[in-house]
């Protein structure tokens, strides 16, 4: 992948939704890293004071969506603003819930700045406290990426990643919603980019196993599957099923029914199993 003259710092983009309790400390920690330049917070229709807290913390720029459009849309908005603010400069995507551990992201930035990688992905240590899911979303994402690219990521859903501007542009338009990380990995690899996982001492809010968390995972699974399907060439055959699952997941967020969660998960898993078989069938 061609690259422009080497920049000395990156632009950080933080997609945030209802993070007033965490965004301030995340920004402050990030600003301690020498290789992080401008910080852009994209407030994605928060119903709390996320934008106000961000504006009062250091010299960040806050861009607002007046309604909630999802993480990928917020990242797209941030990437566009970064291109205006610092053309050609790499972009570091940072989740808003890392709090003080965001100060450890230096090693994730470095390989992109020195031209050793086109995209780095932070690999997190085991997280503190109870929580965590059953691994279905992670497995689906990991297996899907492997089938589409031949590369097996350790943490396919990690949102902490740094991309050269060329790599980021190669992945635009981004996969939607929670499929954005899977889409980035597949698209950058397919464009010939070098992807590097970097262990990093990061901690974030762990999603539990309550109903709300299960609904979050169902939406994640639907979006991840959609990103894979969209990149598989098997789109027409499995799209109807994935689409159905996605509509189910959206409805679930409102209704919060356990049975519906199970049905969505089953529908998406079977779409993804089908996708896997299609992928195998397509291999030479
Ligand atoms: N833009 C946007 N960001 C979101 C949304 N929901 C969550 N986020 C942000 O995305 C990041 C990851 O979300 P999180 O809930 O921690 O997901 P997890 O880390 O996968 O469990 C955090 O920075 C959130 O503030 C959303 O609807 N829109
Ligand atoms: Mg998180």
Automatic annotation (TrEMBL):
Keyword Transferase on entry: yes
Enzyme Commission no: 2.4.1.266
Gene3D superfamilies, A to Z: Spore Coat Polysaccharide Biosynthesis Protein SpsA, Chain A
Compositionally biased region (Basic and acidic residues): 275-284
Pfam families: Glycos_transf_2 (PF00535)
Catalytic activity: (2R)-3-phosphoglycerate + UDP-alpha-D-glucose = (2R)-2-O-(alpha-D-glucopyranosyl)-3-phospho-glycerate + UDP + H(+); an NDP-alpha-D-glucose + (2R)-3-phosphoglycerate = (2R)-2-O-(alpha-D-glucopyranosyl)-3-phospho-glycerate + a ribonucleoside 5'-diphosphate + H(+)
Record keywords, A-Z: Glycosyltransferase, Magnesium, Transferase
Keyword Transmembrane helix: no
Domain (Glycosyltransferase 2-like) ranges: 13-128
Region entry Disordered, spans: 255-284
Cofactor(s) listed in the protein's UniProt record: Mg(2+); Mn(2+)
Molecular function GO labels: glycosyltransferase activity
Domain of life the protein comes from: Bacteria
Family classification: Belongs to the glycosyltransferase 2 family.
Name assigned to this protein: Glucosyl-3-phosphoglycerate synthase
Organism listed in the record: Ornithinimicrobium pratense
Lineage: Bacteria, Bacillati, Actinomycetota, Actinomycetes, Micrococcales
């Amino acid at each position: 992948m061609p690259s422009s003259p080497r920049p000395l710092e990156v632009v950080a983009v933080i997609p945030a939704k209802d993070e007033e309790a965490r965004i301030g400390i995340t920004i402050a920690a990030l600003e301690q890293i020498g290789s992080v330049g401008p910080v852009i917070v994209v407030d994605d229709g928060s119903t709390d004071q996320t934008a106000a807290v961000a504006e009062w913390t250091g010299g960040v720029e806050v861009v607002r969506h007046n309604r909630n459009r999802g993480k990928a849309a917020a990242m797209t908005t941030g990437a566009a603003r970064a291109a205006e603010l610092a053309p050609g400069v790499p972009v570091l995507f940072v989740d808003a819930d890392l709090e003080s551990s965001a100060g450890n992201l230096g090693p994730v930035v470095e390989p992109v700045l020195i031209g050793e990688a086109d995209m780095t992905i932070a690999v997190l240590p085991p997280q503190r406290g109870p929580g965590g899911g059953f691994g279905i979303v992670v497995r689906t994402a990991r297996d899907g990426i492997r089938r589409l690219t031949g590369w097996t990521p350790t943490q396919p859903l990690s949102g902490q990643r740094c991309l050269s501007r060329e790599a980021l542009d190669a992945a635009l338009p981004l996969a939607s919603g929670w499929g954005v990380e899977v889409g980035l990995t597949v698209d950058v690899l397919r464009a010939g980019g070098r992807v590097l996982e970097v262990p990093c001492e990061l901690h974030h809010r762990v999603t539990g196993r309550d109903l709300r968390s299960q609904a979050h995972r169902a939406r994640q699974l639907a979006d991840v599957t959609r990103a894979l399907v969209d990149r598989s060439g098997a789109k027409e055959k499995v799209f109807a099923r994935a689409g159905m699952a996605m509509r189910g997941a959206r409805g679930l967020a409102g209704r919060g029914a356990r049975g519906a969660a199970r049905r969505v998960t089953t529908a998406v898993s079977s779409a993804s199993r089908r996708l896997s078989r299609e992928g195998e069938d397509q291999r030479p």
